[in-house]
Amino acid sequence: MSNEKNxxxxxxxxxxxxxxxxxxxxxxxxxYSIVQIENSKSNLDTARGDHLGPRVVEVLDKWDILxxxxxxxxxxRLGAKWFNSNGELIHHSSVDDLPxxxxxxxxxxxxLIASVSLNLALNESKxxxxxxxxxxxxxxxxxKETHGGVKEVIVSNQKKEKITxxxxxxxxxxxxxxxxxxxxGFKVSKSYNYTKPFVVLFGPKGELxxxxxxxxxxxxxxxxxxxxxxxxxxxxxxxxxxxxxxSTWKKSSLEERRNLIAKRSEQLMNIETEVAGFYPVIRREAxxxxxxxxxxxxxxxxxxxxxxxxxxxxxxxxxxxxxxxLPEPQDMHNIELVINCLKEFEFSEKPIVDxxxxxxxxxxxxxxxxxxxxxxxxIPHLEFLNKNIEANFxxxxxxxxxxxxxx
Length: 407
Ligand SMILES: Cc1cc2nc3c(=O)[nH]c(=O)nc-3n(C[C@H](O)[C@H](O)[C@H](O)COP(=O)(O)OP(=O)(O)OC[C@H]3O[C@@H](n4cnc5c(N)ncnc54)[C@H](O)[C@@H]3O)c2cc1C
Prior knowledge:
Distance between the termini: 60 Å
Largest sheet: 7 strands, mixed
Oligomer: single chain
Radius of gyration: 22 Å
CATH superfamily of the domain at 5-78 and 104-193 and 282-372: FAD/NAD(P)-binding domain
Low-confidence stretches: none
Bound molecules: flavin-adenine dinucleotide
Mean pLDDT: 94
CATH topology of the domain at 5-78 and 104-193 and 282-372: FAD/NAD(P)-binding domain
Helix content: 25-40%
Number of helices: 10
Strand content: 15-25%
CATH architecture of the domain at 5-78 and 104-193 and 282-372: 3-Layer(bba) Sandwich
């Protein structure tokens, strides 16, 4: 067909969400030929997370992305504080005194994390990179010769032209309902639908004046609320709510939202909020990450309850490990080598991540059953951390993403 196009890249990246976009940028100086497909042309949803932890900041620096995030307005966050209903500080957890290379979180709007990364990929002069966007997926061909992985993908662009891609390796970052995961027959045994959806509320821009950008947790006898900074002095609140309350929140006036929030934390009864979005929460964890020449990364391989704020962080950390295991560009024609490298990646990383995912699921279940009481239940633990230097250190290192480096 005259309008048919063909690509045979070293690597096909599926999806240009946080995982796909940062991988595209992370690969830009490594000499591979890359095709990336993305089916949406709109920006990512800004409310889907904007905090990246110190361990991921280390990756971003290694990939020469970090300074561009700061150029785009990223800000540092140095810790979190917990107050009781009398306004007394119960606990302060900081990261800026930890013995790690980048002792801070960064805050950058979700859509900017992806767009800055994609722009780096698109503007790298010697990068053999093609972003096909928006395209719709017509067909995924799985074959014996790719050992159950992707042999060929056919997509259509907006002009209805068919584009055939025959990758040597596919990185599927197509999110929690991944079609590539299904097409390759990955099993998802750990599957759970949490009962409480999440509502995200935004406060007014420019209101926060804290140069440390700390998360403020307000604990009260009726529950608790975390005020989480966004860039530009804005802040947000994420709440687990009952499914049947979604319409109440959707229709709520400013005054009604004040009352709803006051039920959880009286300290915040006068704040101004707008509803940014509602999110059903699910657990989907693939039993394995690799099928032949195809690997799952990000939410496609494992979702994480948003109360934990770790989905992007885990996606980027796994991606960083994956990139360390890839064969050299000149060896990508060797499918056996490609498959072995992917298996080694899975072997080295999955057991560590699985352990943390199990913890996250426990936290998700806890959020489902005791969201309002969880804050006050945390008080004894926070008081313990105040007294025990070693436990305090371990807690802060874990929050910073360095749990696996603790002995
Ligand atoms: C309310 C909320 C708050 C959160 N807060 C945080 C936080 O603070 N920190 C944190 O680390 N995580 C947070 N998360 C989790 C985080 O948003 C996700 O883990 C992360 O965005 C997943 O990125 P991804 O690239 O794997 O998937 P996605 O972001 O879902 O991206 C997948 C991409 O693939 C594209 N796609 C899908 N199918 C196809 C196809 N067939 N062909 C081509 N393209 C396709 C989609 O259009 C999309 O762009 C939060 C989540 C929620 C809901």
